[in-house]
Write a structure and sequence with these properties.
transcription regulation; disordered C terminus; HTH_AraC-typ_CS; alpha+beta; 9-stranded antiparallel β-sheet; Jelly Rolls; Arc Repressor Mutant, subunit A
Length: about 290
């Protein structure tokens, strides 16, 4: 995790409107607040039709959303839109609040935001090594190096972040708190390390159960086998990359945990129903929130 260059914010204003109407970045920042003067009111803010995702790295902040108070500790984020009924601030009993944030705009993006808000509420818990947080940090790094130069690139980054967040929360789900601890540990491992050469033995090891009991428990909880779940997560990621990046299919296969491109092609065709190349050439890409496999 980066520890320097705190309190740097980058704003964006692009002339191109086409990509902005879909999804785009308006600002990204990394801050450490130490004064109780830090206070933001979602009704008073002048921006409209925008969403903000703010992830706590250290310290503690608070938010009041529609009359309910939330404590925001390390590993927790709020995802809200404005104008709306919310305030967030550094409480009197907290010395500091360090966070990284992203503000976004676009009709499509706001649609996905509303789905998450309705299903999971305004506060989410994410591991610092999870893909949405790593994507957010990478966007901040690109901005700090002055590499976000046009609306189309910014729009691509905004969409990638939104899809990573959408996939993460729907894969783990609000009901994950009711899952057995062994299943939670295994799904988190897959979510965070799907790009590596994971095997069923790795999941069994982190579950701390026997292979027999783990596989039975996992299938009963998730309604799919551990291998099917790994395939699901990897295929969802592959579809995002195929639709939003110019990387070669061989590179995408590697980024999704497949060292052999031929095997990736075979799995992709069996799972999605077409080749990766055919999927990429489609005129219209429809994002996948949940993939159900036989």
């Amino acid at each position: 995790m980066l520890t320097n260059h705190i309190n740097r914010t980058f704003g964006f204003h692009f002339k191109e409107k086409r990509s902005s109407s879909f999804a785009n970045i308006t600002s990204v920042g990394w801050e450490k607040q130490t004064s109780q003067a830090y206070y933001l009111d979602g009704i008073q803010r002048k921006e409209s039709k925008r969403a903000a995702f703010q992830y706590t790295l250290s310290g503690r902040g608070e938010m009041i959303h529609e009359g309910k108070k939330y404590t925001l500790k390390a590993g927790q984020a709020f995802y809200i839109h404005f104008p709306s009924d919310h305030t967030y601030y550094l409480p009197e009993n907290s010395d500091s609040w360090e966070f990284i944030y992203l503000t976004l705009q676009g009709d499509e993006l706001l649609h996905y935001h509303q789905e998450i808000l309705k299903s999971f509420g305004p506060v989410l818990t994410l591991h610092s090594d999870s893909m949405p947080i790593q994507k957010l940090i990478s966007i901040w790094k690109l901005a700090s190096e002055n590499l976000i130069q046009d609306s189309y690139f910014a729009s691509s980054l905004a969409y990638q972040f939104a899809m990573e967040l959408n996939r993460y929360v729907h894969s783990l789900g609000s009901s994950s708190s009711d899952w057995p601890a062994a299943v939670v540990k295994a799904t988190v491992l897959v979510q965070e390390q799907y790009d590596r050469d994971l095997s069923i033995d790795d999941l069994v090891r982190v579950s701390q159960l026997s292979r027999y009991h783990f596989t039975r428990l996992f299938k009963r909880t998730m309604h799919m086998t551990p291998v099917q779940y790994m395939t699901k997560v990897r295929m969802e990621r592959a579809m995002v990359l195929l639709s939003s990046s110019t990387a070669s299919i061989k590179e995408i296969a590697s980024q999704c945990g497949y060292s052999e491109p031929n095997y990736f092609h075979k799995v992709f065709r069996k799972t999605v129903g077409m080749s990766a190349g055919e999927f990429r050439k489609q005129d219209q890409y429809r994002p996948v929130d949940v993939m159900i496999m036989d």
